[in-house]
Every structure is written in structure tokens, then in C-alpha cells.
Amino acid sequence: MWRTLRLRLIPAVLALICVWVTQIASAAPFMVGSKRFTESFILGEIIAQTVRDAGDTNVQLKSGMGNTSILLAALKSGEIDVYPEYTGTIAREILKTEQALSLEEINARLAPMGLRAGVLLGFNNSYVLALRSDLARSLNIQTISDLSRHPNLTLGLSHEFIGRADGWRGLAQAYGLEALRPRGLDHGLAYEAIAAKQIDLVDAYGTDSKLSRYALTALEDDRHFFPSYEALLLFRADVPERFPAAWQALQKLENALSQHTMLALNTRAEIDQQSFPSVAKQFLQSTATGMALSDTPPSSFMMVLFGPDFWRLSGQHLFLVLSALVLASLVGIPLGIVCFYAPRLGQVVLAVTSVMQTIPSLAVLAFLITVLGTIGTVPAIVALFLYALLPIVQNTHAGLKEIPASMRQAATALGITTGQRLWLIELPLARGMILSGVKISAVLCVGTATIAAFIGAGGFGERIVQGLALNNTQLLLAGAIPAAAMALLMQGGFFLLEKYFTANPRYQN
Fold this sequence. Notes:
Largest sheet: 5 strands, mixed
Distance between the termini: 46 Å
CATH architecture of the largest domain: Orthogonal Bundle
Strand content: 5-15%
Helix content: 55-70%
CATH topology of the largest domain: MetI-like fold
Low-confidence stretches: 1-26
Shape: elongated
Number of strands: 10
CATH class of the largest domain: Mainly Alpha
Mean pLDDT: 87
Structural class: alpha/beta
Strand order of the largest sheet: 7-6-8-5-9
Radius of gyration: 28 Å
């Protein structure tokens, strides 16, 4: 009877699975991305909240994903559906042309990629070079051309600007500034460096609120090198058909943001230390009511620490860590056994896993994005898995090596096979050392997982990335403290596990 019942249940279960999969596919979220600077953070929030306010709650925002190449890869792979971009960036960085293109020409060239650009937001945010005002006056520097007469100036430019064709590389050639040697700095930290007079000049945007705060002079682009950077949306070509309600809501953002308004929003985030969601909400409320932007007091540290995103970031961070740790344990323990039983091969394994620890994490992520053809959770977990291997492999190998040879000889004399000896004697004896390796890997993973935010995988690194963009100590601490607390909880959990094994007679050797 039970067999007949099981056979009848199988088609029903398969049908339910098909329905479930279909529902998930049909309920695909509307994915919004943004770059890793203040204005893009705010615009990403405005896009996501606009769609959400229109009644579509199935919206996900991946903030601070990185530079243009990462966002473009995310669009092409379907990781995101839309993100805020600029016409000049599309022309120079995506379409690789020096020509000034109209929106129609841009879309004609984007079509083969399956992408489109549209919904001009209403402001132009071209690059500017900003010099300390005291130096500008004393050296009589008013234009970018004047910089060629002062090769001893110290430049602190963002890494993206240094590498872009429409950034320093092209600018230096156009103005003959090859004698100047820029230093690569995070955009948010560059302002602190110029305030401390460690550098003299930074790259900035036309709507950057910190130009006035740090008393900087925007130099005239007298040779008109920088193209127009009209803000707009870059999206997958099928977005209007796949998400008609969301697309209709986004049409309302056409010319909704003036240069003055965007500057005011950036000021609220950077100077007044208001959160990006709060700034976006204020703008949308003012647009809906027709009233001026209202003032909102900055949040206290506890409000930032336990903000609405706390549990979401906690879940993402824990998922990344546990996924990588489980994979590393499943692979690392067998590799440690191989290292012990096959010493020559083991030397190669230990050498490779050791070398992995020396490669910068961001370089590993960039390589994995290229290899896997995607961004987000998958490359982040693979990177964490690679970094977690070494302690597990080393400790498994060391634990097996510490077992006295006499114990193995006694087991052999009793007729126990190698496999039985490994499973029944050696691994239980090495259990403490193996657990110690897993514990070390867990703590390392919690800290390293913060880099996942650079490719849109979430976690507490999101707050750290935003804090760097804003130079906001509160946000930095709100990301670092929970990550440190999670590492301590992990360590405490393994301590209790080891204590349990030690106290329980079943697991005593």
C-alpha cells in the first residue's frame, strides 16, 4: 500500500515543483544597480524607491557594485536590469568612441549588446579637476592648461579616473600633462588628503558638494576635453516588456533632477551625513507634494547600526561565510588527507593553497568575474572558498601527522584496513586540530566577506563601501562592528563545539 501511495505522490510532487519553479521565474525581481560613489548611490535608491512606490515590491537594489566595467558585465549577464549612467561614460567607456553621440546614436550602437539608454534625468555631471583654492590663487592657475607649468603639483585621483580613456590618460595627452604623476586614491579619501594638504588636486564631478566644503577651485576645461555627461538610465533592452509597470513608473523621472537639486541631494548625504535611502525618500516626497526638500536630522549611531538593512545584511554575510566554509571543509579535509598520505603531491597542494593567500582579494574577484562571466554571490563564495582552504588543509595534515606511528602499526596488526583506520582512528584523533583549522577559516571568511560588497554580493561590506564613499565614520563602524561581532560569535560557537566533543564520552578517544 505504501509503495502504491508513494508512486501516486511522485507525479503530484513533480507538478508542485514545476508550479513553484514557474512562479519563481515569473516573479523575477527588478534588479537595480549603482556605482561606488555618492551620486550613484542616491540615484540607485531613487530608481528602486520609484518602482517600489508604484506598487512593485519585488525590487532589489545592489548598491556600490563597482566601476563601469562591472556594472556593464552585470547588465549583460542579467544580474541587474538597470543602473544610472552618463552619456559621456557610455560613449567613451562602453562604446569606445571619442565622438559626441546623440541619444539615438548611442542606442543604435548599444542595440547589438541588448542594451538601451533613456530617461534623461535632467542634469549634466561632467568631470572637473579641482585644485586647492589657495594654490589656485597663489600660482594663478585657472584652467587645466595652466597645470603644465607646475609639474611639481601632487595629484590624488580616483583609480577609475586614472584608468579611463576619458579620464587621466586622455586628458594628459590632450593637455600635455605627462610630467605630472598622479597617485591613486579612493574618491572619498582624496578629499581628506587634500584638506590635510597631502595632495593638491583631485578629480571631481560637477555636482560634487565637497568642492565648496573643502574650498576647491574647479579648473576650466579650456580645450573642451570632457564630453557631456547627461545623467540617464542604462538598461536591458527587454526591461519595458518584462517590467511594464516598473518602466512606466521610471518614465516619471524624466528631467526630474536639476543640477541644483542633485547638488542638494549630494550635500545631504556627504555633508549632513544622511543615509542614501533617506535622501532618496526626501526627494521623491518633495516631487510628489511639489514642496521643497525638507530637512531631516542626521541619524544617531545606534539608528545606523540597527537600521532597516541590518537583518538583510546579516543574512547575506552569514550565507556567504557558511557557504564558503562548508565548501572549504568538504574539499580541504580530503586535500589534507592527500597531503599526509602522498607527501610529494601534498607539497604541491600546500604550495598552491599558500600562494592563494598572497593574492589580493580584489584581484581574485576580478579574475573570477572574468572566468565565471557573472558578478555577485557566486564569485564571492568561490573567492572566500579559496581563501578558506589553507588553514583547513594545513591543520588536517598536521593533525594526522601528530598521530604516533605505533598506533597505526597496532591497527595494522589487528587487521584493520587503511580506510577503516583513517575513518575510525585517525580522523577522530585529529578532530581537535581539524576543528581548529575550520575555526580559523571561519573567522577569516567573516572578515574577508566584506569585499563581496564591491561586486554586489551584499553583506556588511555594503556599509563599509558606502562609508568610504562618504568618508562617514558612522557607516564604516556600522559595517565593521557587526562583522567583528559575527567573527567572535563564530569563534565562540567553535569553542563550545570543541568543549562538547571533549566532555561527551562518545567522542573521547
